[in-house]
Specification:
Layout: H1 45-49, E1 70-71, E2 84-91, E3 104-106, E4 109-113, E5 119-122, E6 129-133, E7 155-157, E8 160-164, E9 169-174, E10 180-185, E11 204-206, E12 209-213, E13 224-229, E14 235-240, H2 255-262, E15 275-276, E16 283-286, E17 291-295, E18 299-300, H3 304-307, E19 317-321, E20 328-333, E21 349-355, E22 358-365, E23 371-376, E24 382-387, E25 394-397, E26 404-406, H4 412-415, E27 419-421, E28 435-437, E29 442-449, E30 452-454, H5 482-490, E31 493-500, E32 505-512, E33 520-523, E34 527-531, E35 536-541, E36 547-552, E37 562-566, E38 569-576, H6 581-585, H7 588-593, E39 602-608, H8 633-646, H9 648-651, H10 673-680, H11 699-721, H12 728-731
Helix pairs in contact: 8-11, 10-11
The structure holds calcium ion.
The site of calcium ion has 6 residues, from loops.
């Protein structure tokens, strides 16, 4: 299915480009003044279940329990969206890291989170700050997260605001004051090895229970999801997604089903490495069926051969449980024996669709593995799936069971040979929210067309710090030839994809030159809103994809917008600020994808004829020239290996920052070996997340990393001035 071949063999990312009709909304939008309630955030089961009766609010992560992320509002519509203008902006007091939050708007207050799990309460009409809560997450926990110190938002319920802090605490706040009411550690023993847990996802509240999962699928983690009493913080139930140590009981809702259905799908001592199946994103709830749905992450370590074979239930699966008890009801595993970071933790969206003349109650997902799935949400039965992006690891699916028919060459762990997989680890779709529009009957997906060279790490030994994937990131790192990188860039694409779930085909698509773009929202105004890596925030006509409006925000966008009404005016709001897995790890590919704009953490709210002015971007900084490179090729090669074992996942492939964390090529410590050791060996900057690596590497090894970065700093500086012309950014992507 892919034809392009890039010269250098061992490259990390080989990316190949890929490749409705609805009616304008007819139903009237009720006037949506907030109910006259004195209490703030007085969200209840009744209000959430009837969320469409107060469309001016956005009361939960996916707006409604079915997580469609569709708004019935239409004061802003395809006819007048050209008049949309900035109404207010709020500069987040937050680190310049990934801003991924879905704002919640209810009872006249907006609750939005930032990197490092801070919570901000704002006036949704003006952006005026009401309170700020900082959970003071220790900087040293940053390394426990694969994909930036992100937070995707809060849940609100009965006067409280719930946030999952990056270090694993679930915290209840008083919605009026922002003061902490209770806090529980969702991780039993935060310091224990082999566990490495964080929280990046948004809690949901179902039947008075706060549901929260954990991240950690690139580390030695065993996935689980937990329900806490919203009033007291007391644990009600926990569901582990993969078996633990044989013979040891968890006293969890999952005990029986893991033994009866899951354990036989594993072999060996997999549990010592965690197993994976973490639960950090998609959830949905059907009140009529009384079913809570959640998705699970990849198997861990990534390399399936290291886990010893088998389907490895319930990794890469959708699971339905009873929200009252956590009792298992059904599961569907979309990638058995997962080996490519193909998580099924992505957004879960419920809808009732007419299929073959019958209304079916479905659950929909566009997981990382590249197929768009439609399941019966009553039973978990497979209905249909088709590739929504380029897929080469499977040639298709069994039409009855949905089990993939694999290309056996894809199993790089078992074959011992590299495999350039499509999609890559960022998936055909990652956490960036999609939206189902019941008027156009289309799902809008922030789709990714990308691939990645998986090379098994033959000398894999689990580490106590950093990623444990059993994939060789050094052998798979980007080539140093800028022409080859430019070629890779040209094949790395994204799309706003309008997908018809019933016929399982694209209806329309808006192509982007960059892959790592923002989430979406659709509205009854026949509109879809999305921000991009390049900093454009735009509106498209929902039925045909026509671009109707856009604004330059001067920073990459990954978060999803939402829309709400206050005082009779409709607003569209989006958090901006570039970051996340691709931004951290993809090196020059990420740098070029957002044109080196960096990250400006900010909330932007738009309304018709708004009168605010978009702040100008800061002037670009001019880096000092690097020290001369004098190290031998052997030292540079050794430094490259250590760099790609410990550093590249955050500071970027081949010592080229994607624009989130400091670019080490311009580090002031590069010319000072003692300062370098103080930071890398001793942890002088632990407070901001740069922990000590002295327990992992010797001082001599750490020095080789400095020499490698000096080598790369000189090489890239020369390439930028070279006869080939222009910077990497100019040379690629067009
Ligand atoms: Ca993962």
């Amino acid at each position: 299915m892919y034809a392009t071949r890039v010269g250098a063999l061992s490259l990390a990312v080989l990316l190949v480009a890929c490749g409705s009709k609805g009616t304008a909304p007819g139903a009237a939008t009720p006037d949506t003044k907030a109910p006259a309630q004195a209490a703030k955030a007085a969200v209840s089961a009744a209000r959430l279940t009837a969320a469409d009766s107060e469309p001016g609010n956005w009361m939960s992560y996916g707006r409604t329990y079915d997580e469609q992320r569709f708004s019935p509002l239409k004061r802003i519509n395809a006819q007048n969206v050209s008049q949309l203008h900035l109404a207010w902006h709020y500069d987040l007091d937050a680190a310049h890291r990934a801003q991924e939050s879905t704002p919640i708007v209810v009872d006249g207050v907006m609750y939005v989170t930032s990197a490092w799990s801070k919570v901000f309460a704002l006036d949704p009409a003006t952006g005026k700050e009401l309170w700020v809560f900082d959970p003071a997450v220790p900087g040293a926990t940053g390394i426990k997260g694969c994909c930036d110190v992100a937070n995707r938002g809060v849940a609100v319920w009965d006067g409280r605001v719930y946030v999952g802090a990056f270090d694993g605490r679930l915290i209840a706040l008083d919605a009026t004051t922002g003061k902490e009411v209770w806090s529980v550690a969702t991780v039993d023993d935060p310091g224990a090895d082999p566990q490495s847990y964080t929280i990046t996802g948004a809690p949901r509240v179902v039947k008075g229970k706060v549901i929260i999962g954990n991240s950690g699928g690139e580390y030695k983690a065993r996935g689980y999801i937990t329900a806490y009493d919203a009033e007291t913080g007391k644990k009600v139930w926990r569901f582990y997604t993969v078996p633990g140590e044989p013979g040891k009981h968890d006293d969890a809702a999952s005990d029986d089903v893991l033994e009866s259905k899951a354990r036989s799908s594993w072999s060996g001592d997999f549990w010592k490495l965690g197993g994976g199946g973490t639960t950090w994103d998609g959830m949905a709830y059907d009140p009529q069926l009384n079913l809570l749905y959640f998705g699970t992450d990849n198997g861990e370590p990534w390399n399936h051969a290291v886990r010893g074979g088998g389907d490895n239930l319930f990794t890469a699966s959708i699971i339905a449980v009873r929200p009252d008890t956590g009792e298992y009801v059904w599961h569907f595993q979309n990638t058995p024996g997962e080996s490519w970071d193909y998580s099924a933790v992505q957004q879960l969206t419920l809808a009732d669709l007419m299929i073959d003349g019958k209304v079916r109650q479905v659950i929909m997902q566009a997981p990382k593995n590249g197929f768009f799935y439609l399941l019966d949400r009553v039973t978990g039965a497979f209905i249909s799936a088709q590739p929504y992006t380029q897929v080469n690891w499977a040639t298709g699916l069994d039409p009855k069971t949905g089990r993939p028919v694999e290309d056996r060459r894809a199993r790089y762990g078992e074959t011992g040979k590299p495999w350039v997989a499509m999609p890559g680890p960022s998936g055909g779709h990652a956490w960036q929210a999609m939206s189902y529009d019941p008027l156009t009957h289309l799902v809008y997906i922030p789709a990714i067309d990308a691939s990645f060279a998986f090379i098994g790490d033959k000398s894999f030994k689990p580490k106590s710090m950093g990623w444990n994937t059993a994939v060789d990131f050094n052998a798979g790192s980007l080539p140093e030839d800028p022409k080859v990188i430019a070629q890779i860039q040209m094949n790395l694409k994204g799309r706003l994809l309008a997908w018809d779930p019933v016929v399982q085909k694209a209806s329309w698509a808006v192509p982007y030159d960059t892959s790592w773009n923002g989430g979406v929202v659709s509205t009854a105004g026949n509109l879809v809103f999305q921000g991009t890596a390049m900093g454009q925030f735009a509106a498209f006509q929902a039925d045909d994809g026509k671009r109707l409006w856009s604004v330059e925000t001067h920073t990459g966008i990954v978060a999803p917008p939402v829309t709400y009404e206050v005082n009779g005016e409709q607003y569209v709001v989006v958090e901006v600020g570039w970051g996340g897995a691709f931004a951290l790890a993809a090196g020059q590919l990420a740098h070029d994808a957002q044109a080196n704009q960096g990250n400006i953490p900010r909330v932007l709210a738009f309304k018709l004829n708004g009168t605010d002015t978009m702040p100008e971007p800061p002037p670009p900084s001019v880096p000092a020239p690097p020290p001369a490179s004098k190290a031998s090729a052997k030292v540079v090669a050794e430094g490259k290996l250590h760099y790609h074992t410990f550093c590249s996942m955050c500071h970027g492939d081949s010592a080229f920052s994607g624009g989130v964390l400091p670019d080490l090529r311009y580090s002031a410590a590069l010319g000072d070996p003692n300062a370098w050791q103080a930071i890398v060996h001793d942890g002088a900057r632990s407070a901001t997340g740069m922990v000590a690596f002295g327990s992992q590497m010797s001082k001599d090894e750490i020095e080789t990393i400095r020499q490698y970065v000096i080598y790369r700093a000189n090489q890239t500086a020369q390439q930028a001035q070279g006869p080939a012309g222009g910077s990497g950014a100019a040379a690629a992507g067009k």
